[in-house]
Amino acid sequence: MFVLPKNEASADGAALLQDMLRSQLENFGQIEVRSRAAESRSISSTLSKDVEAGFRAINDGDEDKALIVLGGAFTAIKAHNGPLDKRLMAQILKGLAVANAMDGEKKKARNFLNASLNFWPEQKTLEYAYSKDVFQLYASTEKARLTTLRASLELSCPTDGATIFVDGEKQGASPVSVKGLHAGGHWVVIRAEGYRTAANWVELKA
Fold this sequence. Notes:
four-stranded antiparallel sheet; two-stranded antiparallel sheet; 6 strands; 50% helix
C-alpha cells in the first residue's frame, strides 16, 4: 500500500501516513503487509547516495567517475518496479547531462538534459553553472524547448484496468492520449494489478 504525495512539500507527511496505515493493517491477522514500500524507500536512499557521489565527482572534475556512478544509478532506477521518485530521476539525468557535456559528448548531454527537464521542468539556469560550456548547453536547450513544437503520444495496453504513467505523472487508464509533450526522452510506465510493471523510454520528435 502506498500513500503518494501531491507535491514535494507533502512527501514527508505522506510517508508518515503510509507507515501509520501499514502499522494498523499489520494488527489484522488476515492481512499480510509486504515490504514493497520499504524496498522503494531503501532503493531511493541507496540511489540518493550514488547521486551525491556522482555530483561530487563532477565538482572534482572527474567526469569519467561521474558517468560510471550515475550510469549505474540510471540503470537501477529504470529496473525498479516500485513508485518512481521523479526528482531523483531528474537529478540522475541532470548529472549524466553535465558529465557528458564535460566529456565533450554534446549530443548525449543534450538528450539527457531534455529528459531531465521533462521530469522536472522547474530547474534554474544557475543550477548548471558548472562551467561555461555546461551553462551555455542549458541555456540553448531551454530556449529550444520554448520555441520547438510539442509532440503527442498515443498509448494503449490490452490488459483491462492498466494504468499509464508518463514521466512519473499518472495519465489514466489505457488507452490514453498525452499531448503537449516536449521532444526528447520520456519514461513510460504501465501498471496493472496482478501483472509485472512494464516500463520503457520513448524518444519523441516534435
